[in-house]
Amino acid sequence: MLKSKIPAFTLLECLVALVILSGSLLVFEGLSKLLVQEAHYQNQTIQKEWLVFSSQLRSEWDQAALVKVENGKVYVDKGGQALAFGKSRSDDFRKSNDRGQGYQPMLYHLDSAAISQENQLVRIDFSFKNGEERTFIYAFKEKS
């Protein structure tokens, strides 16, 4: 009887292939978990930025009197100083003087900011570049 060699996989080759396959799946799983954690962190960061911004804007407007809302800006008088708050031509919401000089960015990555006024109530609807939307509402004190 003649023995002929038939090409086939050995047990060792099968084990090596299984180890490589399982290692690849473990790496893929780890990268997937890392991606989910990064997305969660980015979402929390945007939330923190919004909380800091809203607190900062409230403290700015607490001692200010509303002058007018015009051309996408809120004009206030704070201790005799005329200030303007609004979205710039770039992607930030900023504080400047009433002529637009000396700016201080307060919030970044904006797509749009729609400002409306009803009596002493100012409403700003923000749309961010990542698709999120936020609304800021502030009631100025009546002029005495």
UniProtKB/TrEMBL annotation:
<protein>
    <submittedName>
        <fullName>Competence type IV pilus minor pilin ComGF</fullName>
    </submittedName>
</protein>
<dbReference type="GO" id="GO:0030420">
    <property type="term" value="P:establishment of competence for transformation"/>
</dbReference>
<dbReference type="Pfam" id="PF15980">
    <property type="entry name" value="ComGF"/>
</dbReference>
<keyword id="KW-0178">Competence</keyword>
<dbReference type="InterPro" id="IPR016977">
    <property type="entry name" value="ComGF"/>
</dbReference>
<keyword id="KW-0472">Membrane</keyword>
<keyword id="KW-0812">Transmembrane</keyword>
<dbReference type="GO" id="GO:0009986">
    <property type="term" value="C:cell surface"/>
</dbReference>
<feature type="transmembrane region" description="Helical">
    <location>
        <begin position="6"/>
        <end position="28"/>
    </location>
</feature>
<dbReference type="InterPro" id="IPR012902">
    <property type="entry name" value="N_methyl_site"/>
</dbReference>
<keyword id="KW-1133">Transmembrane helix</keyword>
